[in-house]
Amino acid sequence: MHRFAFIIHPLSIADIARKYRVARWLPDGLVHWAIKRMSPTLVSEITGIQSTTGATTEGWFIGCPLTARQLIEADPEQAIGKIVQSGKLAQELGAEIVGLGAFTSVVGDAGITVAEQLDIGVTTGNSYTVATAVQGMLEAAELVGIQPATAHAAVVGATGSIGRVCAQLLAPQVAALTLAARRREALEELADELSLAGSQVDVQTDVNQALREADMVITVTSALETIIQPDMLKPGAVICDVARPRDVSKQVAQQRDDVLVIEGGVVAIPGEVNFNFDFGFPPQTAYACMAETMILALEGRCGHYSLGRNLELGRVREIARLGEKHGFRLAGFRSFERAVTPEQMERVRQRAAQMS
User: Do the beta carbons of residue 208 and residue 234 sit within 8 Å?
Assistant: First the structure.
């Protein structure tokens, strides 16, 4: 059996307060000061994962004591140092590969420096995140009556490591594609690459403009606050939010029953998995980035996998095949931590039909 670990961290002060109640009454600055001085900890043991091939694996959640804001805004060397400490704890426990969760996967050079300082394999999980996000959005779009081959799609955060490969996968499957990010030069470089393959592509640095005509949207930025608001979306649109923290405001769900927002990368895990930790998902489901680490352990692929800012399209396709081989699958659709109902689907279908 090959074992794995996965590094998690609190997204915000609110997450810390759920574990340490005293944090609710302390100034945010003091809480940040305190957790910055904490050491990585073992959060829980993960058991019961069994592939349809018969292979098994088990692992651990490791807690990296930094919030999303600290990981993004702190000195990169200090943040990477804390992630490396978390990886070394994984090594000591017996893990052969470790996954970098949430913002630990985007600090510095997206895992490369961390990998250089550990003696076990490292992955960000981004390859399987891409594969499941695109698959999920295309399936959801068809269920509400949108035909991808005639649809206009958009990728927000298109120049990031996940967004770029999402765009590469989507471009040949849709009628038109808008790429959105902050740096126009990088956008135009990606657009030129996709256009050479025959795709109709345009670029936008204004997210609002990028979404005006989009029937399908994948959003995967590293923003610390929501960037997509209710008035920015086309009626009947399907939005797959892969980002954590979320890119899509909760007000979209409250005010726009004519669009469908789904969470990207929610995967059903084969076997009788017990995470011994509640991260807000239904039993036996996990984020795709977590699942990638499990798949690689089941396959005995314990070297480095998804690292750096430029994911390989071939690896995205490979991990999708390996996931299918071991019995991993999309876990239906969820929107703001709730299952999508048939009624929601029908409302969006009706609006999409009206707009066609």
Answer: no
Q: Which of 278, 281, 270, 174 is nearest to 217 (CA)?
A: 174
Same domain? For 12 and 83 the reply is yes
Give the pLDDT confidence score for residue 30 in this predicted structure. 60
Number of domains in the chain: 2
Amino acid 140 reads A
How many Å apart are CA 181 and CA 184, to the nearest integer? 7
Residue 137: domain span: 130-265+332-355
Report the amino acid identity of residue 297: A
Q: What are 93's strand-pairing partners?
A: none
CA 114 to CA 217: how far, in whole Å?
32
Query: Could you count the other beta carbons within 10 Å of the beta carbon of residue 200?
Result: 13
Structure tokens at 173: 């499957």
184-242 residue pLDDT tens: 999 999 999 888 777 789 999 999 999 999 999 999 998 878 999 999 999 999 999 98
Answer yes or no: do 11 and 110 share one domain.
yes
The Cα 125–Cα 36 span in angstroms is 25
Mean pLDDT of 76-104: 93
User: 67 and 45 in one domain?
Assistant: yes
- If asked whether residues 85 and 228 sit together in one domain, one would say no
Q: State whether 203 and 189 are in the same domain.
A: yes
What is residue 349's three-state secondary structure? helix
Task: Give yes or no for residue 23 having a pLDDT over 60.
Answer: no
